[in-house]
Amino acid sequence: MSNYCIIMAGGIGSRFWPLSKNNYPKQFLDIFGTGKSFIRSTFERFLPVVPAENFLVVTNAAYKELVLEHIPEMTPNQVLCEPMRRNTAPCIAYASYRIQAMAKAKGETNPNIVVTPADHLVTNEREFQRIISMGFDFVSQPNHKESLLTIGITPSRPETGYGYIEVAPEERGGESRVIEVRNFKEKPDLDHAKQFLAAGNYFWNSGIFIWSLDGIMTAFRSFLPDMVSLFDSGAELFNTDAEQQFINEKFAQCQNISIDFGVMEHATQRFTIPANFGWSDIGTWGSFYTHAQHDADGNALLGNIVVRESKNTVINIEPGTEAIVQGLDHCLVAYRDNSLLVCRLDDEQRIKEWVEDLSKQ
Amino acid sequence: MSNYCIIMAGGIGSRFWPLSKNNYPKQFLDIFGTGKSFIRSTFERFLPVVPAENFLVVTNAAYKELVLEHIPEMTPNQVLCEPMRRNTAPCIAYASYRIQAMAKAKGETNPNIVVTPADHLVTNEREFQRIISMGFDFVSQPNHKESLLTIGITPSRPETGYGYIEVAPEERGGESRVIEVRNFKEKPDLDHAKQFLAAGNYFWNSGIFIWSLDGIMTAFRSFLPDMVSLFDSGAELFNTDAEQQFINEKFAQCQNISIDFGVMEHATQRFTIPANFGWSDIGTWGSFYTHAQHDADGNALLGNIVVRESKNTVINIEPGTEAIVQGLDHCLVAYRDNSLLVCRLDDEQRIKEWVEDLSKQ
Questions:
Q1: Which chain A residues contact residue B342 at CB under 8 A?
Q2: Residues 6+ apart with CB under 8 A from B241
């Protein structure tokens, strides 16, 4: 049974300004200074379970060269370019039609697909690969060829920044096994997040999906028939030289909808594998701070920095620069590409607003 | 009677790091964003009372080109290069020997000289020029050809960062007239500074001196005879092609001493003109903050900056960069030439120490 991986890498990640910007989004950053960008780490993390030629990265044309720089193992043909952002359902539909054409050409029937964001952190890659393999095994069973599987994460805190997956109360504390999903919950407020954590039958929604090609195609046909008609009208063009032009002409007509709302909400055979492989979506400076290494005063430092009388502060400056930082508590100092940010870490959700103010003036 | 101006521009101004650095000291900065550097402003401030060809800038050879960029009205010959820093007495002695040679070549007898640092702020230039002219008039009187005059500044606060000039109690509150100096006082502690302010017969020492060529030469001969012997040994080489080599060979032998300790302390005919022309030596970020324009929250901003929930904070970033700063109170944020500083304004006297720490790591 062959496995494919769709890496969704269209985002901009403006919450990481000034490290991430339109011309250099978050997935291309090496925010921890490990020597590998998020997208590179994502590719390497799946490489033991998906052959290099079966990866597809869906992104904006503006980032195609960057993607190939970060993953030179891929051919240009493996980078799918959306002409505009249309949320995750059209992104996954496009890549699924391509996989359909690729599988047909190779004589494969109903390959497995894993779909993943490009910008997550995983600290236990071996456990990660074990869970993904378990998911592939599950969806390749004949009686689960229409099942849709989401990787859940055992929560460690009442996080309000993630969506949750609810399973039956008797499945509380389940881990490393396939459990039927009862409900998807959007990002909760703190009270609900605390209840979810205490209840034990709620897991963070990682945004990583596993299914068979037939499974997702059947779901698209059932729940997003207009989108399917649109892609069906050029089905024979996928994996040919005419594909890009077809996408450029038609993609704008796709409904702007997430895979969660467009498909998962309505599906009946929904499953999760709760897992624990040191996951974070590092969607914010706060989550970066949580996962970064700290000095004795709780500072997370990256760069050539002298820090004095400061604590619980993130300082992240680009190579070739230097900084002296003194007298800050629970703040963020970031510098990249001629842009500087100094703010309270607790107010980081307003970065986007400030960046807009800056671009206006 | 002809007038000469010696601009002392050898300093580094490391207290303004990262704006000032070894390769770009404070005198070349446009720290207020007026479009003119300190040295340029100094030149223009004296230009109505000293002809352009009678300026001499004493600096390090490394800064010669920078000086000429900032003051294109001067010829390379007017920039005197010290091979190393030897404090103000050797600097002024060197320039005085040059002026002696220049005056001789032009048939001038005993010209007036004003000596000034390169990095002061003056807000009322017309009043400044009136005071300097008054000083020139004074030292060109036959009975004052050996008098040494210092410009005093009427103090507006009990400043501990400046030296003071003491005059007789009956001269308290004197301004815009020549008064005999009783004593020079080094930088006082706060209690003494308060006493000086209350007493009224103490003025800030601006470090601007006015005297005649004969007056300062006589003083050097009396109080620094070794230095005079050194320069006398090549007296005929000044203002010739051999001058620089002579200086390069001999300058290191000069005693490292200030004009204040080497000459002014010992002189008998010492005078001051207390003045009030909006003067500051802007020796620190704190004095910069005092003199800069403030927004409604007391912030002094220079650059393309979005500032939120911050007060009494200095933000100074170089052209071509942008910054978002939020949540700071009484802090300093400065960026230039790949170096960033964020610290409490009250701790700015430690910048030098931190810069050393940074260079060590």
A1: 323-328, 333, 342
A2: none
pLDDT of A281 reads 84
Positions of chain B with pLDDT under 50? none
Question: Does B314 reach chain A within 8 Å, measured CB to CB?
Answer: no
What HEC string does chain A produce? Answer: CCEEEEEECCCCCHHHCCCCECCECHHHCCCCCCCCCHHHHHHHHHCCCCCHHHEEEEEEHHHHHHHHHHCCCCCHHHEEEECCCCCHHHHHHHHHHHHHHHHHHHCCCCCEEEEEECCCEECCHHHHHHHHHHHHHHHCCHHHCCCEEEEEECCCCCCCCCCEEECCHHHCCCCCCCEECCEEECCCCHHHHHHHHHHCCEEEEEEEEEEEHHHHHHHHHHHCHHHHHHHHCCHHHCCCCCHHHHHHHHHHHCCCCCHHHHHHCCCCCEEEEEECCCEECCCCHHHHHHHCCCCCCCCEEECEEEEECCECCEEEECCCCEEEEECCECEEEEEECCEEEEEEHHHHHHHHHHHHHHHHC
* Cβ contacts of A332 on chain B, cutoff 8 Å: none
Task: Give me the residue from A320, A327, A338 closest to B321, CB to CB.
Answer: A338
Q: Which of B21, B306, B324, B325 to mutate to test the interface with A (most CBs of A within 10 A)?
A: B324
Each residue's pLDDT tens digit, B50-98: 999 999 999 999 999 999 999 999 999 999 999 999 999 999 999 999 9
Place A18 in a pLDDT band, splitting at 50, 70 and 90: very high
CB contacts of A326 in chain B (<8 Å) are 342-344, 347, 350, 354
A361 has a chain B CB within 8 A of its CB? yes
Closest CA to A358 of B313, B340, B321, B304: B304
The predicted-structure confidence for B126-166, as pLDDT tens digits, reads as follows 999 999 999 999 999 999 999 999 999 999 999 888 999 99
Q: Does B357 touch chain A (CB under 8 A)?
A: yes
pTM, to two decimals: 0.79
pLDDT band, residue A22 (cuts 50/70/90): confident
What mean pLDDT value characterizes chain B?
94
Closest approach of chain A CAs to the CA of B353, in angstroms?
11
User: Given this model, what pLDDT does residue B47 score?
Assistant: 97
Q: Which of A16, A299, A306 to mutate to test the interface with B (most CBs of B within 10 A)?
A: A306
Smallest Cβ distance to A306: which of B317, B333, B354?
B354
